[in-house]
Amino acid sequence: MSGSSLGLTVSNGSNNGGVVLNLGSDTITGPEAVQAIAQGTGIISIDMNSTSVTSTGTYGIVAQNGLGNITIGGSNGGLAATINAASGFGIFTGSDGNQNITLASNGVINAMTGISVQGITVNIDSFGTINATGSTS
């Protein structure tokens, strides 16, 4: 999926609707390469295995909802992807629900800011590599 102005965007606009993404050996490129947006208490779950994500803009992976839980890399030992976001965030999340991010041992984030989370309860387990080149603030 390359050449699209959005990359991969999945948004559930229904009341308390969730989003689940399970990606394999895909190559995704766009300004917001992978975007998952849920409503209210809707959950977001993102898993990747051998996926290549390249942001040409601000976000490699962005996941946002209201009060629902966000899980990135919840299966198979964590997120097994290479995420490139030279001008922004490798992973960006926002939720008042629980947020769990696991980067697998073969997961790599190359970004200005590796991981940025906004929320109340956040758990990050990194077994992979995060190369952060600076701050966007």
Task: Please characterize this protein's 3D structure.
The chain is mostly beta strands and 137 residues long. Helices cover 0% and strands 66% of the residues. It is built from no helices and eight strands. The protein has strands at residues 8-11, 19-23, 27-37, 44-64, 70-72, 80-103, 108-126, 129-132. Strands 1, 2, 3, 4, 5, 6, 7 and 8 form an eight-stranded parallel sheet that branches. The chain is globular. It starts with 7 loop residues before the first strand and ends in a 5-residue tail after the last strand.
Separation, N- and C-terminal Cα atoms? 30 Å
Q: What is the H-and-E element order?
A: EEEEEEEE
Q: How many individual helices?
A: 0
As residue ranges, the low-confidence spans are none
How much beta, percentage-wise?
over 45%
What structural class is derived from the secondary structure elements? mainly beta
Shape: globular
Total strands: the figure is 8
Give the fraction of residues assigned to helices.
Answer: under 10%
What gyration radius follows from the Cα positions, in whole Å? 13 Å
- Main pleated-sheet profile: 8 strands, parallel
Overall pLDDT confidence: 93
Which features characterize this protein?
single chain; 137 residues; mainly beta; 0% helix; eight-stranded parallel β-sheet
Quick overview:
The protein has 137 residues and is an all-beta fold.
What is the fold's blueprint, element by element?
Blueprint: E1 8-11, E2 19-23, E3 27-37, E4 44-64, E5 70-72, E6 80-103, E7 108-126, E8 129-132
Parallel strand pairs: 1-3, 2-4, 3-4, 4-5, 4-6, 5-6, 6-7, 7-8
